[in-house]
Amino acid sequence: MTLPPNVYDAEPIPDTARAEIDRMLQSGDLFRYTAPENAPVALLEQEFAAHLGSRYALAVSSCSAALFLSLKALGLPRDARVLIPGFTFAAVPSSVVHADCVPVLCEVGDNYRIDIADFTAKLDNVQAVIISHMRGHTSDMDAIMELCTARDIPVIEDAAHSLGTTWAGRNIGTIGRVGCFSFQSYKLVNAGEGGIMVTDDADLVARAVIMSGAYEHNWAKHIDGDDTALRDAFAKWQNRLPLYNLRMSNLSAAIIRPQIAEIPRRVRDGRTNHDHVAALLNTSPWINVPQPLGPEQRAPDSIQFNLVNMSDDDTRAFAQAAAARGVKVQVFGLSADNARAFWNWQFLPEAPGDLPRTRAMLMRACDARLPARLTRPELDVIADALLQAATDVMGEARAYGT
């Protein structure tokens, strides 16, 4: 019998990172601006931008830092209203508050994607939008971009969970004005901590670079080749912006860089794993894994599913039964103090409203990790544990008429 796998360990860091890490440990050269050029962080930015097809990238201390800098780089006024999904991680509204703006929440449906009707209704009273592709689930970016473009509202993509996901063939994170990614341990690329933002906007990235901590003329080390637009933007903003010091270290960049080549394989294996488990779970009348939207190709490292016709007590019993079989399930709305349940965000400057659709979804939405490294037998153990947990609580499904 195959035991439930450990789903929390990340993949080993590629051996190719070790020589560079050893070199830096010997020299102590961990600061991105020490070298005149080609520091590991600068090389990471070039390679990551090229991987996504973006013009610019800025590596920083976290995805939250990237979101914060994106908002500040847009030049929004104090108390600007920023529309975000009601289903996201607490770091997203926190970044809005940190940027002296006000989060406005819109409804999310039971497929974990933005309710376009509620999004549209709230759009005329905001100055910016953050689209969280929560757990890699992509909302209708065609509709979102059409609505926001018509109103000249900038869109920031929170792509923390979405590296490798595409929408109609375009990389998520490159559709809006700026895209922000995470390198935290549970993401597709792991540096323990870290983040990066990508954009094609020279003025926006120049502002973000300076505010990230490029003091004096260190911004010159961000210019690759003869980029007159970027050089002019840096000269324009020199000494006019505060320094928040959210830089990434060379050590983190050295850990990240060799993993870029692993992204296609991790995406392929993660999608295969997810779809295999989803097909098994959808055989149960008590479990539903929502289908992706048509243009979306996800890059998942976890699986989300809704419990069907279960009460709160049934839902808690399901999670306990799964845990007894060695599979931890997080129920977003019932896990104590969950950072993805909007009613726990007591730091918001304005009450978020009830958001009944989002609340109902979160009370039955479950999350389980499925790292790309898992084997087919390990996936089957996880799926079987979840199916049996549902049967424990709800009983055997009956055929129609019996």
Automatic annotation (TrEMBL):
Residues with PTM N6-(pyridoxal phosphate)lysine: K187
Keyword field: Aminotransferase, Pyridoxal phosphate, Transferase
GO biological process, one term: polysaccharide biosynthetic process
Domain of life: Bacteria
Gene Ontology molecular function, alphabetical: pyridoxal phosphate binding; transaminase activity
Active-site residues, as the UniProt record annotates them: K187
UniProt xrefs under Pfam families: DegT_DnrJ_EryC1 (PF01041)
InterPro entries hit by this protein: DegT/StrS_aminotransferase, PyrdxlP-dep_Trfase, PyrdxlP-dep_Trfase_major
Family named by the database record: Belongs to the DegT/DnrJ/EryC1 family.
Protein name: Aminotransferase class I/II-fold pyridoxal phosphate-dependent enzyme
